[in-house]
Specification:
This protein is α+β, with helices and mostly antiparallel strands and 113 residues long. It is built from two helices and three strands, in the order H-E-E-E-H. The protein has a three-stranded antiparallel β-sheet, with helices on one face.
Length: 113
């Protein structure tokens, strides 16, 4: 079995845990770790047992914005970062394609000389 990347494995684990919690499947044995966290043991896509922590983080009250404004600001910041990542990935892919064409052209020129 090919070993999957950490990113893919971790995303799958997060998706499975959150899906179970938010879709009320109740198919996971969650254990209370402390007052802020629960944990579960799962087997990842590479066949290894992993410990996944689920935490509840309470944001500090702020005088400059409401709780709703803070939540919206954090969502927008996340979405902006994701859009920037996608744009960078698109630029890298375009550059890689351009470089591939250039290398092939240079290879053909060397062969024709």
């Amino acid at each position: 079995m090919a070993k999957l990347t950490k990113t893919a494995v971790d995303k799958d684990l997060r998706d499975r845990v959150l899906d179970s919690i938010f879709h009320e499947k109740g198919d996971l044995d969650l254990f209370k770790i402390n007052d802020r966290q629960f944990g579960v043991l799962l087997t990842d896509l590479n066949g290894h047992q992993r410990y996944v922590r689920i935490g509840a983080i309470v944001a500090e009250e702020r005088e400059d914005m409401t709780a709703e404004e803070l939540m919206v600001a954090e969502i927008e910041a996340y979405q902006m970062k994701q859009a920037e990542k996608a744009e960078k990935a698109q630029k890298r892919a375009a550059k890689a394609e351009k470089d591939k064409v250039r290398r092939e052209k240079e290879k053909e020129e060397k062969e024709n000389v």
